[in-house]
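Priority: medium. Attachment 1 of 2:
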């Protein structure tokens, strides 16, 4: 059985250059359910026009296709259909520019962990403003790769602070709850806004072949909706308050389902632990999640 050569894998890197402008920001915000009455998110001429924080996932989606296409070269038995987005970490160093901007994004393997029935692969992804070299955000995209033997790697992840932290929901009633009904068009709109053109999120035949009842929302879309809820409740709608988010993607959301975000204040309101549930059965779709905020609590309670 071939071993995974982690030291050599970590030396590899991938790079992409992407461009976006105000229309990209508008489309992304609206794909996450931003109201057309909220001009700071839906009108490029508004003095506080901004991208929602999880816009930082868009250049990540662009580069992860390249990383995934390379996995067969260093993971024994890798098959693309056994690849599932399991956890995500996003840290924002500054708000995204809203004018026409070019981004340079670089990815490297951070860690590979043996999970018995497969491995998790963590990809660290840094995005900078191409014109200034200023770092904008850092993501860690962790995938579970089923049926890949973990020979040669540890069964314990490298500790990386917030990026490897876990935040189970407290055993008490939430401090705040926001519910939002996703729409039948949301999957299609988010595909266009994010560039994630996986047919799983639009084609019923592909979804059913994958074992789903129908097309599912992209995991980063569900993540964006939850972060939006936290910012609206505890950041007074000010996305500049956002510092970082860590979460686990537990189950998919089907367009049309109601998403319920339950939130708990910690650290004086600068950390909001949360989870997301969806559908009539209240399945947990995002778990072990927390948003770190800059400054003091902006709660509207």
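Attachment 2 of 2:
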């Amino acid at each position: 059985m071939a071993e995974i050569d982690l030291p050599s894998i970590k030396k590899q890197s991938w790079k992409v250059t992407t461009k976006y402008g105000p229309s990209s920001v508008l489309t992304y915000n609206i794909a996450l359910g931003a109201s057309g009455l909220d001009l700071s998110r839906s009108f490029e001429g508004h003095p506080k026009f901004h991208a929602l924080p999880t816009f930082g996932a868009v250049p990540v989606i662009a580069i992860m296709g390249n990383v995934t296409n390379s996995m067969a070269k260093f993971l024994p038995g890798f098959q693309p259909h056994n690849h599932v987005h399991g956890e995500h970490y996003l840290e924002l160093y500054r708000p995204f520019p809203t004018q026409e901007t070019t981004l340079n994004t670089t990815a490297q393997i951070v860690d590979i962990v043996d999970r018995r029935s497969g491995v998790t692969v963590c990809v660290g992804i840094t995005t900078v403003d191409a014109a200034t070299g200023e770092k904008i955000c850092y993501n860690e995209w962790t995938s579970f790769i089923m049926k890949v033997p973990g020979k040669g790697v540890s069964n314990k992840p490298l500790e990386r602070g917030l990026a490897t932290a876990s935040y189970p929901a407290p055993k008490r009633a939430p401090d705040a709850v926001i519910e939002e009904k996703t729409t039948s068009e949301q999957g299609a709109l988010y595909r266009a806004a994010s560039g994630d053109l996986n047919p799983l999120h639009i084609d019923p035949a592909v979804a059913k072949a994958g074992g789903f009842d129908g097309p599912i929302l992209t995991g980063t879309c569900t993540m964006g909706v939850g972060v939006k809820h936290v910012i609206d409740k505890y950041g007074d709608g000010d996305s500049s308050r956002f510092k970082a988010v860590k979460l686990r993607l537990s189950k998919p959301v089907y367009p049309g389902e109601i998403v319920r975000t339950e939130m708990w204040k910690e650290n004086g309101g600068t950390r909001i632990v949360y989870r997301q549930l969806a559908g009539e059965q209240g399945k947990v779709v995002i778990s072990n999640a927390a948003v770190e905020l800059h400054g003091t609590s902006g709660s509207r309670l």
